[in-house]
């Protein structure tokens, strides 16, 4: 499969799994088209054409033409210059590698990370949080993230990939949407005697099992193992990066008892304590790996010849469903 086709398919699967729903995303893309058409020639030069078909600001091809035939894909959760040198070294040793798929955004996918954050509002709405409150709290957080990232040295990784001739693409919110849906369905919708039982169910998922055996298990960071879970949500699994701490109070008011998260910030933890919300910090890398695995399961149904080399935190687990 060509890189362009593989990535376009990944975008489609990300759209299908998105908490905002397919229709909302279609509308969003249509609005982008209308906006683009109204621009004058000079402004069109600065418009990101990717936005006309791909609603995920943090997912895109960052190096390559798209015409590359992909048989062997290196996949890593954090891929920077050292990992690209590793790939180059593997190629020197005779491994045939066609491209690298990167989870955490690099290059323009990082520059535009805040664009995916509004989907967190829809995630929260599903647990009963007021949409106007969530939207109002989200805006300043998005501005903060944009300003912080804006000062970063954004294009180092894509330049290295360019120099080494390694086609590279980012799939961030695409696979985070998939793991969010998976956690909601397989974990959050069920009932547990207490928090310990919930954590044990999480640990039974193969990626978490593998990480737990290496000393990186899902952790209760707020709450007691013998305490009840209340309503469980995986509200910190997708949406680019952590939302504002105010979301903790909102979720508590909406009746959420336990939040599953990939990474809990200190401020969020403080709020969780204040508002009596249990928090389980699921292993970050294992969580990201689940999303990537769910994407690969679907892609590999269509492209049976795809081979994967796991690096930088990613572990491949196949699911048949
Ligand atoms: Fe992720
Ligand atoms: Fe992550």
Report the bound ligands by name, code or SMILES. fe (ii) ion
- The overall pLDDT, averaged over residues, is 96
* Main sheet specs: 5 strands, mixed
Low-confidence residue ranges: none
Number of domains: 2
N-to-C SSE string, H for helix and E for strand: HHHEEHEHHHHEHHHEEHEHEHE
3D structure, described in words:
This protein has 321 residues and is an alpha/beta fold. It folds into two domains: 3-177 and 287-311, no CATH class; 179-283, Udp-n-acetylmuramoylalanyl-d-glutamate--2,6- Diaminopimelate Ligase, Chain: A, domain 1. It has 14 helices and nine strands. The chain has helices spanning 3-16, 22-38, 41-46, 81-92, 108-111, 119-125, 131-150, 156-164, 173-188, 195-203, 206-213, 246-253, 266-274, 284-302, and strands at residues 60-63, 72-76, 99-102, 168-170, 219-222, 231-236, 256-261, 278-281, 307-311. It is globular, with a radius of gyration of 20 Å. It binds fe (ii) ion (2 copies). One fe (ii) ion binds next to helix 14.
Write the layout of secondary structure elements.
Blueprint: H1 3-16, H2 22-38, H3 41-46, E1 60-63, E2 72-76, H4 81-92, E3 99-102, H5 108-111, H6 119-125, H7 131-150, H8 156-164, E4 168-170, H9 173-188, H10 195-203, H11 206-213, E5 219-222, E6 231-236, H12 246-253, E7 256-261, H13 266-274, E8 278-281, H14 284-302, E9 307-311
Parallel strand pairs: 2-3, 2-9, 3-4, 6-7, 7-8
Antiparallel strand pairs: 1-4, 5-8
């Amino acid at each position: 499969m060509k890189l362009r086709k593989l990535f376009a398919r990944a975008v489609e699967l990300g759209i299908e799994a998105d908490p905002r729903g397919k229709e909302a995303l279609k509308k969003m893309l249509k609005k982008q088209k209308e906006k683009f058409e109204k621009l004058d020639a000079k402004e069109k030069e600065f418009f990101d054409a990717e936005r006309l078909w791909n609603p995920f600001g943090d997912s895109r091809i960052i190096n390559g033409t798209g015409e590359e035939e992909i048989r062997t894909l290196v996949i890593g959760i954090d891929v920077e210059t050292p990992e690209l040198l590793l790939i180059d070294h593997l190629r020197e040793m005779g491994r045939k590698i066609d491209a690298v798929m990167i989870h955490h955004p690099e290059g323009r996918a990082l520059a535009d990370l805040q664009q995916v954050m509004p989907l967190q509002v829809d995630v929260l709405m599903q647990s009963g949080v007021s949409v106007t409150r969530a939207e109002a709290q989200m805006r300043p957080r998005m501005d903060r993230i944009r300003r912080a990232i804006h000062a970063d040295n954004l294009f180092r990784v894509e330049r290295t990939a360019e120099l080494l001739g390694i086609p590279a693409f980012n799939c961030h919110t695409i696979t985070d949407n998939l793991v969010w849906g998976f956690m909601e369905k397989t974990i959050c919708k069920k009932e547990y005697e207490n928090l310990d039982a919930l954590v044990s169910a999480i640990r039974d998922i193969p990626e978490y099992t593998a990480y737990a055996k290496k000393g990186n298990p899902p952790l209760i960071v707020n709450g007691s193992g013998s305490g009840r879970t209340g309503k469980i949500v995986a509200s910190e699994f997708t949406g680019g990066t952590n939302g504002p701490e105010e979301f903790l109070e909102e979720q508590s008011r909406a009746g959420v008892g336990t939040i599953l998260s990939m990474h809990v910030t200190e401020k969020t933890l403080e709020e969780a304590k204040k508002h009596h919300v249990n928090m389980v910090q699921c292993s970050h890398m294992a969580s990201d790996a689940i999303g990537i695995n769910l994407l690969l399961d679907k892609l590999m149904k269509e492209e049976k010849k795809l081979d994967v080399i796991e690096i930088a935190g990613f572990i491949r687990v196949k699911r048949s469903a």
